[in-house]
Amino acid sequence: MKGWMGKIRALFLLSSLALILSGCGRENLTAFLPKGYGAEVSLNLIIISLAVMIFVFIVVMIIYTVVLVKYRRKKGQEDYIPKQTEGNKALEIIWTVIPILLLVIIAVPTVSATFDLADESEKEDTLNIKVTGNQYWWHFSYEDEEIQTSQDLYIPVGKRIYLNMVSSDVLHSFWVPSITGKMDTNPENENTMYIEAYEEGVYWGKCAELCGPSHSLMDFKIVAVSEEEYNQWVTDMQNFDAEAVPETASAQEGQELFQNNCISCHALGSSPVAVAPNLTDFGNRTKIAGVLDFDKETLVGWISNPEEFKEGNKMTNAEYLKNGSLSEEEISKIADYLLQLKPTTITPESATN
Amino acid sequence: MSTTIAQNRSFGAALWDYLTTVDHKKIGILYLVSGGFFFLLGGLEAMAIRIQLIKPANDFVSAGFYNQILTMHGTTMIFLAAMPLIFALMNAVVPLQIGARDVAFPFLNALGFWLFLAGGLILNASWFLGGAPDAGWTAYAPLSTTSPGHGVDFYVLGLQISGAGTLIAGINFLVTIVNMRAPGMTYMRMPLFTWTTFVVSALILFAFPALTVGLFLLMFDRLFGSGFFDASMGGNSVIWEHLFWIFGHPEVYILILPAFGVFSEILPVFSKKRLFGYTAMVFATVLIGFLGFMVWAHHMFTVGLGPAANSIFAVATMAIAVPTGIKIFNWLFTLWGGNITINTAMLYSLSFIPTFTIGGMTGVMLAAAAADYQFHDTYFVVAHFHYVIVGGVVFGIFAGLHYWWPRMFGKILDEKLGKLTFWTFFIGFHLTFFIQHFLGLMGMPRRYWTFLPDQGLDTGNLISTIGAFLMAFGTIVFVINVIVTSVKGEKVGGDPWDGRTLEWAIANPTPHYNFKQTPLVRGLDAFWIEKMDGRKEMTPAEPVDDIHMPNSSILPFIMALGLFIAGFGFIYQVDNSAWLAAVFIGMGILLGCMFIRSVKDDHGYHIHKEDLDKGAGL
Amino acid sequence: MSNDTLNPKVMPEEPEKATLEGKNKFLGFWFFLGGETVLFASLFGTFLALRNSTNGGPSSQELFGLDLVFIMTMLLLTSSLTSVVAIYQMKKNNFAKMQAWLAITVILGFGFLSLEIYEFYEYITLEDFTFRSSAFGSAFYTLVGFHGGHVLFGLLWILTLMIRNAKRGLNLYNAPKFYVASLYWHFIDVVWVFIFTVVYLMGVI
C-alpha cells in the first residue's frame, strides 16, 4: 500500500518541481501571461473550466483513495464475498445531475466568449490588415494604407485591429499565444479575427497547422507600438523609395544585383508582388527567415543555401541558385544592401513603454 | 491423441492452418501478433520523435523525415496497433462471453484480418519506396494533395484497404452479438465488454464509410486529376476536414469504449463484486457512442466555421462528459465495499481511473471553443489525447492482455515482470505527457520538428523525453514477459481468476468448438451465478449433439493479396501506365475470389458427438 | 448441414431466414446497407458543397436535361418493382417465375446503365464536361459514377446467382442469397431517387 501511494506522490512532486523550474514560459510567447484581449478571454475561460475540473478531480480522488485504503483484501478474508450491490438510484441521479450543472457553469461563459471573439461590429471603422500564410512565411498587407510587409506585423497598441486571413498554398494557422488564440488560413475563404495588444512589445507568433517540412520554422512577430510610433511607421513606410541610392559602394552594387536577381519574387515598398517576403524594412528585423540569427554571415549563408536552414522552402528553386549565377562576393553585396534597408526609425526596439 | 498430432505437425502445416483459419480464437491471435508488431514499430517512431525534441534546435532527423515519422506514428498507432489489438481481444473473448461456438461470418472475419494486414503492409512499404506519408495522420488537404512523391498515396491505399477490413469486422461482430447469443443471454445480461464491442461495431459501421469516401476523394485528387480539394478548380479543402472528423471523432470512441469494457470486466472480478449500476453503464456506453457522431467539428474550432457552429459543437462535446462521469463513478462504487485484489491487470485498471479522469478534464477544457483557440494544435492537445489513448486504450489493452492471457494461451503472464512493466510504463507515461499540457500553453505547437532555444521550452521537452524512455523500457519488459511466460509459464485451469462471465466456464485450452453444449444463461455474470449455486459448470441448454463448424478457406488471404497487388498498381500507374496491369490483375483476383465464394457451396462440416468425447477439435 | 435440411419438402414462408446462416446474412446485409447509406450521404454532402463550383466550366443548368434522366429513372424504378415480384415468387417457392422476373430486372438494369453511359459520353464529347473540368465535375462523376458502379455490380451479382442456381432450383442455402441481392437492388434504386432529386432536379432549377 505505502509503496504505491508513495510512488504517485513522488511523481506529482517531480512534475510540480519541473513546472516551477520552467516557470510559465517566455513572457512574450506564453499563453499564461496574456498581453492582449483574445489571450485574456481564453485564459479566463481556461481558468474557469480548470477550476471546475479540479473540483471534479478532487471528488474522484477522495473516493478513490478511500476505496483503496479501506477495501484492499485483508489477511484472513481471502474468501470473503462482499454484498453484490446492483446500484443505487439516488447516487446515480446525483452523479448525473451535478455534472450537468457543472457543465452549465462552463458552457455559458464558453458561448459568450466564443461570440465575443467573433464580433465584427467594429470591423468597418478600424484598421484592417490582410494576412496571407505562405510556405513558410507570413505576409501582411495594410490595404487602406497601401503598405506591404512580411514577417513583422506592426500594430498600434490598445486598439482593436481586424485581420482578414487567407493562405496562398496549404493550410496554416496564425497564432500569437500572448496576444490571441489561433485562426486558420484557408486557401478558399477569408477568415476574420481581431486582435488587441494591451502593452507595447514584440510578441512571438507561430504557425500552428502542419504545412510541410519547415512548419516549425515559420515564426513571425507582432510588434505593438504606441499610436504615435505607429503613425510614424506608416508615414515612413509609405515614403519608402526603392530607387534611393545606398550609402556604401558595396550596397549600391548589391542594389543592382538585387534588382536583377531577386525582385521578381521579393517586392520592395508597396508593390503587391508577394511571391516571397516583402523586404522593405528588412534592416529592422531581428530574425532572418523568421528563426535565424540576424547578422550578415547568417544572411549570406541563407541566400547561398536556403534549403540548409528551411527544408522545402521555395527560395531553393530560385533562378540564381539553379544557375549558380551569383558568386559569394555578389551575395555578400546583396546582404549589405538588404541590411541597410531601414526606411523607418520605428523598429522592434521601439516597442517598449 | 490429438495432442500428439499437434506436436508432430510441421511448421508448414501450422502456417497453412493460420493462413486458412476461420476460427475466431486463432484470428484473435493473428490480430494480436500483427497489432503487437505495429505497436512496437509505432513506439520506435515515437522514440525518434522524442529524441529529436530532447533539446532545442536538434537535428537528430531532418525536418522532412520528421514529418514522415510523426505521420506514421499517428497512423500506425491508431489504425495498425490500437484497433487490431482491440480486435484481438474482441475475437478472443466476445464469442465466448455470449456462449457462441463461432462468430456469425467466420469467412468474413478472416477476410477482415487479412485486409487489415495487407493495408498495414502497404502503408509501411512506403518507408522503402521513396518515403512515407508526411501530411500528418489527419492528412489535411491541400498539404496531402500536394505532397510530393508517393508517400500520401501509400497512406490513401493502405488505409482504404485496412479500413475495408475494419468495416467487415464491425458488421461481423454486430450480427454475432445479435444472432449468436446463447439461450437466456438477453441484451441486459451481456457482459459490458460485449456491450462495448456491440456499440463500437455500430460506430465502425457508420463512421468508416465517411473515411472511405474521404480517401477516395483524396485518391482521385492525387492520382486522377480531380479537384475536390483544389481551390484553383473550385474545390474546398474544408470538405476533407469534415469527412475526416465525421469518421475521426467516432474513431476515438471506437478505441476507448472497448477499453471501458475491459475495465468493466476486470474491476468486478478482482473486487469480487458485481458491476455497480450495470444498466447505467450500458446506457452511458450507448449514449457516448451516439453523441460521438454529433461533435466532430470540435476538432475544427479554428477553421472559421463561425461562432454559432462553434458554440453548438462546444456544448454538444461537453455533454459527453456526463455519461463518461457516470462510468467513472460506477467503477469507483464497484470497488467500494469490495474485497480488492491487486495484480497487474488490476494495477492498469486502477491507474486508469485517475489517468483517464485527467484526460476527460482536459477534454472538457478543450470543448470550450474560445479556450480551444489557445489549445488547438499545441502540445496541450497532444497531452490530452495521449492521456485518453494511452491512459485509456493502451492501459486497457495491457489490462485485457494480462487478464485474458490465460484464456488465450493457457498461462498467466509473469506477475513480477508485469508489475515492472506497469510501474515503468505508468511513471514514464505521466512524465512524458503531463508536462506537455504546459508546453502547449507556453507556445509549443504540435508537429514541430524543432523549437528554438530561449523560448522556455527546453526543460519540459527534456523531461518528456526521459519519460518516453521509461515507457519504452516498460514495453520491452512486456515483450520479455511474453517470451518468458510462453517458455516457462505453467498451464493453469480454465478459471484462474474466479471469473464471473462465460469465457471462464470453459476448460483450458479452449476447444475448437468452444462449448460442447451451448450453456443456459440465467442472469448477468452467468458463470458466477452457477458458482454461487454451488455448481462448477454451466447448465447446458441442449443435449450433446453433432456440432456444425465452418470450413477453413484460403480465399480471404488471396483476396487480400489481390487488393495488395492492386494497391501498388493504383499508386504507380501515374508514373507508368503499365502498372495498370497490376490494378487489373489484383482486382481480377479479388473479383474472381468473390465469384468462387458466390458459386461454390460451402456448407461447413460436423463434429460428431461420438468424436466429441474422444477430444476431437481440441 | 445435410441436404435434407436445406431442401425441405415444404418450403417455409420466409426461406431466406429459415437457417441461422440465412438469418445472419439477412441481418448482416441490412447493417452493410446502413454503412452504404453513410457512404452515399458523404458523397451527397460533398456534391452539395461543390455543385456550384464550376470553375468557368459548364454548370448544371447548362448540362442537364430531364428527358433522358426521366427515362432512366423509370427503368430503374420498374426494375425495383420487378425484383419485388421475383422475391414474392421466391416466397411462393416458384423458382421458374422468380428467374423470369429477375431476368426482366436485369434487362431493365442494363437499359439504365446503357443510358447512363450514353449520358456521360454526351457530356464528355459534346459539352467538354469531364471529371477534371472543375470541382463540380469531379463531384458529379464521383457521385453518379459510384451509383453506376453499384448498378453494374448488382447486375453481375444477380446474373451470377441466376446462372449458378438455374439447374438446381431454390433451397434454403441459396434463398438468402437471392434475397439479399434483391435488397441490394432496392437500395441502389433508393439512392437513385435521391440522385434524381438532388443532382438533376435541383440542378436544372
TrEMBL record, chain A:
It catalyses: 4 Fe(II)-[cytochrome c] + O2 + 8 H(+)(in) = 4 Fe(III)-[cytochrome c] + 2 H2O + 4 H(+)(out). It is an enzyme of class 7 (translocase). InterPro entries: CcO_II (IPR045187), CcO_II-like_C (IPR002429), Copper_CuA (IPR001505), Cupredoxin (IPR008972), CuRO_CcO_Caa3_II (IPR034236), Cyt_c-like_dom (IPR009056), Cyt_c-like_dom_sf (IPR036909), Cyt_c_oxidase_su2 (IPR014222). It comes from the Bacteria. It is found in: Cell membrane; Membrane. The keyword Transport applies. Binds a copper A center. Its main location: membrane. PROSITE patterns: COX2 (PS00078), COX2_CUA (PS50857), COX2_TM (PS50999), CYTC (PS51007), PROKAR_LIPOPROTEIN (PS51257). The keyword rRNA-binding does not apply. Keywords: Copper, Electron transport, Heme, Iron, Membrane, Metal-binding, Respiratory chain, Translocase, Transmembrane, Transmembrane helix, Transport. Pfam families: COX2, COX2_TM, Cytochrom_C. Residues 23-121 form the Cytochrome oxidase subunit II transmembrane region profile domain. GO terms for molecular function: copper ion binding; cytochrome-c oxidase activity; heme binding; oxidoreductase activity. Residues 249-342 form the Cytochrome c domain. Residues 124-236 form the Cytochrome oxidase subunit II copper A binding domain. CDD domains: CuRO_CcO_Caa3_II. It is a multi-pass membrane protein. Its EC number is 7.1.1.9. PANTHER family: CYTOCHROME C OXIDASE SUBUNIT 2, CYTOCHROME C OXIDASE, SUBUNIT II. Subunits I and II form the functional core of the enzyme complex. Electrons originating in cytochrome c are transferred via heme a and Cu(A) to the binuclear center formed by heme a3 and Cu(B). Belongs to the cytochrome c oxidase subunit 2 family. This is Cytochrome c oxidase subunit 2. It comes from Aquibacillus salsiterrae. The lineage of its organism: Bacteria, Bacillati, Bacillota, Bacilli, Bacillales.
TrEMBL record, chain B:
It holds the Pfam family COX1. Gene3D superfamilies: 1.10.287.70, Cytochrome c oxidase-like, subunit I domain. Keywords: Cell membrane, Copper, Electron transport, Heme, Iron, Membrane, Metal-binding, Respiratory chain, Translocase, Transmembrane, Transmembrane helix, Transport. One of its GO terms (cellular component) is plasma membrane. The keyword Transcription does not apply. Pathway: Energy metabolism; oxidative phosphorylation. Its main location: membrane. Its EC number is 7.1.1.9. InterPro entries: Cyt_c_oxase-like_su1_dom, Cyt_c_oxase-like_su1_sf, Cyt_C_Oxase_1, Cyt_c_Oxase_su1_BS, Cyt_c_oxidase_su1_bac. Cytochrome c oxidase is the component of the respiratory chain that catalyzes the reduction of oxygen to water. Subunits 1-3 form the functional core of the enzyme complex. CO I is the catalytic subunit of the enzyme. Electrons originating in cytochrome c are transferred via the copper A center of subunit 2 and heme A of subunit 1 to the bimetallic center formed by heme A3 and copper B. This is Cytochrome c oxidase subunit 1. It comes from Aquibacillus salsiterrae. The gene is ctaD.
TrEMBL record, chain C:
GO terms for molecular function: cytochrome-c oxidase activity. Residues 27-204 form the Heme-copper oxidase subunit III family profile domain. It is found in: Cell membrane. Coiled coil: none annotated. CDD domains: Ubiquinol_oxidase_III. It comes from Aquibacillus salsiterrae. This is Cytochrome (Ubi)quinol oxidase subunit III. The lineage of its organism: Bacteria, Bacillati, Bacillota, Bacilli, Bacillales. The keyword Cell membrane applies. GO terms for cellular component: plasma membrane. Its main location: membrane. It is a multi-pass membrane protein.
